[in-house]
Amino acid sequence: MPKPKLPPGTPDDAEAAFYDALQHADIDRLMACWADEDEIVCVHPGGPRLIGHEAIRAAFEAMFVNGAVSAVPEKVRRVDAGPCSVHSVVERVSVLTDDGPRVAWVLATNVYAKTARGWRMVAHHASPGSRVEPPDHAPHRPVLH
After folding, report:
1. What is the C-alpha to C-alpha distance for residues 92 and 13, in angstroms, rounded to an integer?
2. pTM
3. Which residues does 52 contact at the CB level (< 8 Å), separation at least 6?
4. Mean pLDDT (whole number) for 73-99
């Protein structure tokens, strides 16, 4: 069995590899995108906080039982801070329902760290989706906290 393709040398490459693995339901390639640290974290929309490789892998394996996930990152905003890169993305998720194809929009934050093996994901946090594409710039609202 060939080794999974690892993401090349940039946070953008790691992100592209992660979403490509999702779209192909390739659990080995998907998990190769994650850092080796025990404290990696993943939150799926409406789901619990998953910590560590075993919990994250099990969640994605359960998701892949239904096939690949058609999630495409759009409207990516990046904050690069040395060995860490934070990407705020709008995921366009396509699903096939009894009523035909539908699109949902999920807001996600992906955090990448520069490791000895290159850029790897250390956190993926996705919010529940909506049927309406969120705007690039939300209207100004007072800070609540």
Report:
1. 19
2. 0.83
3. 38, 39, 40
4. 88
